[in-house]
Design brief:
This protein folds into 3 domains: about 90 residues, lambda repressor-like DNA-binding domains (434 Repressor (Amino-terminal Domain), Orthogonal Bundle), CATH 1.10.260.40; about 130 residues, Alpha-Beta Complex (Aspartate Aminotransferase, domain 1); about 240 residues, Type I PLP-dependent aspartate aminotransferase-like (Major domain) (Aspartate Aminotransferase, domain 2), CATH 3.40.640. About 40% of the residues lie in helices and about 15% in strands. The protein is built from 20 helices and 15 strands. The protein starts with a helix and ends in a 6-residue tail after the last helix.
């Protein structure tokens, strides 16, 4: 394949120059070239060939002849009349939660290696089971779910979601303001595509759940990351938010409870964000998929309940709270002053109609899931499985020299900080690769969540304590001698 020949040439040129991936990234950043480590990893793997303008830049940066990279392409073109390239719209779209480190783990598994996975928030593989009542209700309704539903969703599902929203204080919500989706992911993509024109800006937290940045970028917008301050319990930095607003800013994204930090925002923080949005006439997008996984007797407040004069879009679903990520059941709620967004809502309706409807069997269980006994509560109370695993992982992180972390209050993630001077870390993706290769433990590096510095990584604490203990013992042993080259 042409990609393999290009990959070999790129590697050879980098070796001759004594150039590492991080050196290219830093040089590209200085020159305003949108080139990240994930891009270079994909070029070196032979899976992706860069655009012509990137090849031209690499030619200069690596001081090779102008036809150095072109020779193999000409040979390829002489053998193939044409080849298909991915859209340039994807050039700056990254999703490293399932990126190069995960690809290596998959290759290792295919070769028979057992991998300890702390990388993805998928409850089912770790023994979390769907409530029996939900399985029964879905199976008994399958014959009634063979056709399309209304593009927004089944009446029973939207009615249950509307009532759930009303109980949580979301203002001015009717049945017409509810949209079901194939998970929240589909609805994030839909909402960004309906809103953003080329060059429009949207404020997204750093660290973030990377789908928000990816979807905003794919829609033609510019993701502008505001800092969440680890020294202040990972709360958003209000001054940083204010400093990054300009005439192109359309909206702000709030992820609460937060992924990847596991932090819950108190009302006082949410009120400050609302006031900024009010002053600058911003839409508020609130990702609340973990709203029912809150521990320590804390209470989740939906930011939309504090903003009846603003237009808000709230996202939630059953993937995490009911441990049924594979069922792909999510929803989106429009609330507040919808007159401000009448044209945007038409765009949402158009895209919603174009995908016809979301998974109908999944919609059929929403009413059952939101009513009656909430089995998730048994996981988060003292002695509950998630609570116990949270306590264990936090203590285990704190006991490893060179690691520290803010105690998570919700969801099932912790975002430890590495002492980069102690470990000489300058490339967090390389840290994740080294840990995987040596100890067969899979984590996601901090830059996968659009965190700028190479000093964090995310741990998913869904595995049982005996598995978490094994992973943390391996991590401690690894870090006791680790110095990045």
């Amino acid at each position: 394949m042409y990609g393999e020949s290009f990959a070999e040439k790129l590697k050879n040129a980098m070796d001759r120059r004594g150039c590492k991936q991080v050196d290219l990234v830093n040089l590209a950043k200085k020159e305003g070239i949108p080139l990240g480590k994930s891009h270079i990893s994909q070029y070196l793997s032979g899976k992706v060939r860069p655009r012509r303008d990137v090849i031209s830049w690499l030619t200069g940066a690596l001081e090779v002849s102008e036809d150095y990279f072109d020779e193999e392409e000409r040979k390829s073109e002489s053998s193939y009349s044409s080849y298909f390239r991915k859209s340039t719209k994807l050039d700056n779209v990254l999703y490293d939660v399932r990126g190069p480190v995960v690809e290596l783990a998959r290759e290792m598994e295919n070769n028979g290696t057992h991998i300890l996975k702390l990388n993805i928030g998928n409850p089912a593989p770790f023994g979390f089971r769907t409530p029996d009542e939900i399985i029964y209700d879905m199976s008994s309704q399958l014959t009634e779910c063979e056709g399309y539903s209304d593009s927004k969703g089944l009446f029973s599902a939207r009615k249950a979601i509307m009532q759930y929203a009303q109980l949580r204080g979301l203002p001015n919500v009717t049945m017409e303001d509810i949209y079901t989706g194939n998970g929240v992911s589909e609805l994030i993509n839909l909402s960004m595509s309906a809103l953003l024109d080329n060059g429009d800006e949207i404020l997204i937290p750093s660290p973030d759940y990377p789908l928000w940045t990816a979807c905003a970028t794919l829609a033609g917008g510019k993701a502008v990351h505001y800092i969440c301050n680890e020294e202040n319990n990972w709360y958003p930095d209000m001054d940083d938010i204010r400093n990054k607003i300009n005439s192109r800013t359309k909206a702000i994204v709030v992820i609460n409870p937060n992924n990847p930090t596991g932090v819950l925002y108190p009302v006082e923080i949410l009120e400050q964000i609302v006031e900024i949005a009010r002053q600058h006439k911003l839409i508020i997008f609130s990702d609340e998929i973990y709203d029912r996984l809150v521990m320590d007797d804390l209470k989740h407040t939906s930011i939309a309940s504090l903003a009846d004069d603003l237009f808000c879009v709230t996202f939630s679903g059953l993937s995490k709270s009911h441990m049924i990520a594979g069922y792909r059941v999510g929803w989106m709620i429009l609330s507040g002053n919808k007159k401000l967004a009448s044209d945007y809502i038409q765009g949402i309706n158009m895209l919603s109609n174009m995908r016809l409807c979301s998974n109908v069997p999944g919609q059929s269980i929403i009413q059952t899931a939101l009513g009656g006994h909430q089995s998730v509560n048994s996981y988060i109370i003292p002695g509950g499985r998630l609570r116990e695993q949270r306590d264990f992982i936090y203590d285990a992180v704190q006991q490893i020299p060179g690691l520290s972390a803010v105690r998570p209050q919700a969801a099932f993630y912790i975002f430890p900080k590495l002492d980069i001077k102690r470990f000489n870390i300058h490339d967090d993706e390389q840290f994740a690769l080294d840990l995987l290769k040596e100890k067969k433990v899979l984590i996601v590096h901090g830059k996968g969540f659009n965190w700028a510095d190479p000093d964090h990584f995310r741990i998913v604490y869904l595995p049982r304590i005996e598995i978490l203990r094994e992973c943390m013992e391996k991590l401690a042993d690894f870090l006791s001698v680790y110095k990045q080259k």
